[in-house]
Amino acid sequence: MNKRVEIAVKGRVQGVFFREEVKKAARELGLAGWVRNEADDSVKIIAEGKEEKLQKLIAWCRQGSKWSRVEKLEAKWDEYRGEFTQFEIVS
Predict the structure, then answer these.
(1) DSSP state letter for 85
(2) Which stretches of the chain drop beneath a pLDDT of 70?
(3) Which of 12, 19, 36, 62 is flagged as catalytic?
(4) Quick one: pLDDT at residue 87?
(5) 19 catalytic, yes or no?
C-alpha cells in the first residue's frame, strides 16, 4: 500500500552530506519525493511509496550517514498523493 511520510531530522545533519545520502537511499528504495535543509539546522523529507519502503527510509534516517549525528526524528504519516516522479534535493 502506498503512503506518504513527512520526516524531520534534527542533530548534526547539515554540511555532512546527509541530504545526498538520503536521496541515494530513497532512490535505492524506489521512493519519490524530496529532501531539504531547514533554517533551524534540521532536515525535512517528504517521501511517497510503499509503506514498508518508507519504514526502511525512516530507519536509515534514524542512523544517518557516517558523518552525521541524529538526535531527534519525527515522522508524520499521510495519505499517498502521487505528486512526485522521483526523489530530489530541493532548496
Answers:
(1) S
(2) none
(3) 19
(4) 98
(5) yes
All cell numbers assigned to 15: 554540511
The confidence score (pLDDT) of residue 20 equals 97
Contacts of the segment 72-77: beta carbons below 8 A, 24+ positions apart: 72/8, 72/9, 72/10, 72/11, 73/7, 73/8, 73/9, 73/10, 74/7, 74/8, 75/5, 75/6, 75/7, 76/5, 76/6, 76/7, 77/3, 77/4, 77/5
Question: Which residue is catalytic, options 2, 12, 36, 37?
Answer: 37
Q: What length does the chain have? A: 91
64 contacts 13 by C-beta, under 8 angstroms: yes
DSSP state of 26: H
Active site residue 37: yes
3-state helix, strand, coil in the chain (%, to 5): 25, 45, 30
